[in-house]
Amino acid sequence: MEKILWIDDDYFHIQSLLNLVQKKGYEVDYALTAADGYIKAKNWKDYKIIIVDIILPLHNHSEVLTDTVKSWDAEGYPGIGFLKWLLLDLHVECPVIVLSVIEDLLDKYDLKNLGVSDVITKTGLGPTMLTERLSKYLLLDKG
Amino acid sequence: MLGDLNREQELSLLNFFDEMTSKKDLESLLDFVIEHAPDLLGVKRCSIYLRPEFVAQFDGSLVDDPELNIIPAETIKEEFIVLARTNYPEKQQYIGKIFYEIGADLTGWVFKTGQTLKLINAHDPEELHKIDPNLKPSIRYVSVEIDKFPPEKFPVLYLPLFSKSRIIGVLKLHWPTNPDGLNETDQKIGMIIGHIIASLIQKDQILKDQKDTILSLANLGAEGKPIEVCKSITAHARKMLNCQHVDLYLLDENGKCINLSFRDGNIYEKSPSLAYCAGEGLIGWVYKTGKPLIIDDVREYLKKHEINDNLLLQISDGPTKYQKAYGDMEVIGRSKGYISEIKHKSPLLAVPVLAKDNTVQGVLVAHFISKRTPPRIEPFNRTDLKQITTFASTLSLSFHNDITKKKSDLLLRLSHSESLSDLYALVARELPGLIRCSDCFVFEVDKNSDQTPLKLKASSRGIFDLSYEFGQDKTGLAALSEKTLVISHFGIRILQDDLNWYLSNNPDDLLEGLLDDEENIVGIIQLRHGRKCNEETQNKFTKFTQELRISNINGLPSSNLDVYLDKGAKPSFSFAAIPIIKEENGELGGMITFGREYAHVPFSQDEIMFVEAIASSLAPIIDLLKLRNSRRYLLVTLAHEFTTPLTSLRSYIENIDIASENIKDINIMAKRLLDQLERLEMTSETILAVAGAKELGRKFSKHSLYRPIAESIKPFVEEAHFLGCEIDKPKALNPDGFPTLEMSLGELILAFSNIIQNAVKYSFRPPQEHRRYRFISIKGNWVDPTESYYRIEFQNYGVGITETEINKKLIFQPFYRGILSSDRRRTGSGLGLAYAYKVVTEIHNGSITANSKHISGDAWLTTISVQLPIRQPTDKRKREDNGKDPMDR
């Protein structure tokens, strides 16, 4: 089964967003912190796409905080540091999707130029719309 | 007859006349010479002839003097005018006729006595060649036919009046009685008189001749940019000062001198001269003190670069005293833009370039070495000084204007800053260039800090590693709250023993400790009443002024003390500080400290006032920007708090539709839908209550305390499990279980929910050895044997709360984010505990406290205790309304 990596501290509350994608045969692996995402994203080849929220806690204090992860705090939003690491250092080849609440951040950090495949705002988002947005990366049957 | 004059007498005489500066002085002198020359020199008659162009420079006033009745200036051409003559009581009567014309260049002419003056037609090369083979007909020589003038029967001495190698006239002395003609002494005295007249005429001439230029320069200074003024000055200097060139050394923002001379179209900017032109030595230097200007850094520079030790820049006021101090030396070479060697009688004239507030901007140096002019007895006179001072003043004015404009710009830009970091950086970056201090630091008062009230926000030297900061406990805040101005001097590192010694000897002094990561004192700032500024500033800032006075390691009194902001960094040199006082409440908002002035002189009142103006304008700007940030932060927070549950709601509803055939799935989703709705309501209720938009405590009823606790747990059980911890079942440690009391049930549930939500959010899975802490526990028990108060303790293992946050009850303030949970500040509303505090204390007359105990690493055991009165009326109004006895549990 193909997998999706979702890094978002709100995952617990909005996991139902991916319900439809899951029904179409994708497994969702999640990370609630940047530190957890750091570990899981190293195996990016296991994932079809990676979904990242910009507003993330750095770690949950029981996780090992590496210098790399610690440096992301300087970005203001650890998610931005995480994205840069993901795209510029790790050079992931799978699509990276940003899912966040705050739209102006997306403009401010010029995420598209960073190499982000798509930017999706949470406002008004539901499983159907999300599935539609992801379909071009996951080759889902829109029907 | 006067005897031979020695050199000192000559100079004395010259200096005496040199003090005469006005046109009136000149007239008096001429009268004096005419009147006394016959007696002094034993001559029959004395006449002074001046070139008309010089006479014409006297604004016509001398020429048109009715007493003299000299013909108007415009009619005089190519002539000398007799301005004074003895034996003509009516001196105005002997005027107007041309005796002879004379050439433009009479240099070197000496008219010997007893001979007829023979001049030749200067247009004739052959004739010229007879006088001097070097003379060329292209020069405008006009022949003088002396024969046209009746030859004198007695010896005549013609002495040219020189002014800086230019002949401006002729002094003619008639000796009727000396059969031997004129001896050398006569000639010398005549020369002296001629020189005096020449210098005075020259002085007046310059003032008149260059009046327009000077005014123009002044205008340039008032309107032009310093760089343009520099160019203009360089262009005019040679003509006006009759010197070879001028050099301009200006202090840059680092206190180093840079050479900004403009010569041959080249700008000698940032030449190697900056290596030796440190600014400190320039301050206080006064022209003609006889003390040469020596820039100490030269020697350091020499050592560093292993250069010939003759490399010195020394500026003297004249050869005599210069020689006394330094022997025969003059500039004999230059290398790469700086003076490389000084050997003998360096004819330099230098004046400081001062801004209006008397801060030294640089030095203007005129070089009187010229291949075209012969060495002069007196390289500089008062006129030269006046001229160069005019230049320097013009430049100063330009700098002053420039600085004033920059100051205005800074204040304007401050008010338009978009962020606090920009604001602080702007001040730190710009201030040293405007008040000429070495460093600038901007601090902000952070009352929420658990260690220090002052946080370094920006510095002119970049942002330091803020591993340790000003202040120790609350001492500093208390001291600073009294609006004291801290003037700190730094210079030596304080060792712990010295600090103890100082403290034991000066128990009344306030101390600010600088602690490193291990809480070792690495430096202190000591505050003590005293004064350091100049008198004016002192008067203005008496109540703010304090001075550091401390003994150094050797026990000797010292005004120095080090502050090391970083172990690897250079010490901070901070001499003065201005508090940023908030106008509305007089509280200290921050502080601007600035480093020492380059020249060890107090800051001027202008400078202090400027910094004060910045400080005054900063407080409201900081507040405004903070408010703006808070507003944005609030909106973002709210958007985030609402968007997540709304997204969930939408998802569940869509999923219910998708899973419409599976009842079990629908039930699960419906339950989650309800959970999300409750969460949304909880957020909304919390915001409304904390904002004061909703009246709390309207509905009281009697319930067991167990109920609100149990209700508040439900929404978080699953989430806690998801995060690796469990919410334990509430336990009453007292045998009779949880008590019953009158309560506003819904609000108490929400209050407890917020506490539990925080506990869940800040919990993390404990390691194996602390496995027992995996539970978020809720325990109840009586506070005291009389069973008046019941306490419920919510305890979790995870991110902790610092002692300061607990003592100051910061965590119960709306929007407050814990220091230790800073990386989580981007999620959550920051209103939960504020709501709980309000409900418990205001509605239920209880109290709420926090405690956090460090376990290991990042892990803390945090307890939120809620104490509720059981036997006391919770709310008299409600009690009367429902008539129930709240004592009944």
Report what the structure shows.
The complex is a heterodimer of chains A (143) and B (889). With 143 residues, chain A is α/β, with parallel strands linked by helices. Chain A is globular. Chain A has helices at 11-14, 19-23, 34-41, 67-71, 78-89, 103-108, 111-114, 127-138; strands at residues 2-7, 26-31, 47-52, 96-100, 118-121. In chain B, a hairpin with a 5-residue loop joins strand 5 and strand 6 (257-259). The longest helix of chain B has 54 residues, at 605-658. Classes of the chains: A alpha/beta (143), B alpha+beta (889). Chain A binds chain B through residues 9-10, 12-14, 16-17, 19-20, 23, 32, 55-62, 73, 77-78, 101-102, 122-128, and chain B through 636, 639-640, 643-648, 650-655, 658, 669, 672, 676, 679, 718-719, 722-724, 764-767, 798-799, 823-824, 826-827, 857-859.
Quick recap:
Chain A is of the alpha/beta class and 143 residues long.
Descriptive tags:
heterodimer, A: 143 residues, alpha/beta, five-stranded parallel sheet, 8 helices, 19% strand, B: 889 residues, alpha+beta, six-stranded mixed sheet, four-stranded antiparallel sheet, 30 strands, disordered C terminus
Mean pLDDT across residues of chain A = 82
Number of helical segments with 4 or more residues of chain A: 8
Overall 3D shape of chain A: globular
Rough outline of chain B = rod-shaped
Q: Which structural class do the helices and strands of chain A define?
A: alpha/beta
Instruction: Name the chain pair whose interface involves the most residues.
Output: A-B, 31 and 38 residues
* SSE series of chain A: EHHEHEHHEHHEH
Which whole number gives the mean pLDDT of chain B?
60
End-to-end separation of chain B: 130 Å
The spatial strand order of the largest sheet of chain A comes to: 2-1-3-4-5
What class, by secondary structure content of chain B? alpha+beta
Q: Quick one: biggest sheet of chain A?
A: 5 strands, parallel
**Share in β-strands of chain B:** 15-25%
The end-to-end span of chain A amounts to 20 Å
This entry's quaternary arrangement is: heterodimer
Number of separate strands of chain B: 30
Number of DSSP E strands of chain A: 5
Low-confidence stretches of chain B: 1-5, 9-13, 56-123, 138-155, 265-302, 307-347, 369-379, 463-499, 507-574, 872-889
- Describe the main β-sheet of chain B briefly: 6 strands, mixed
Whole-angstrom Rg of chain A: 14 Å
Number of helices of chain B: 22
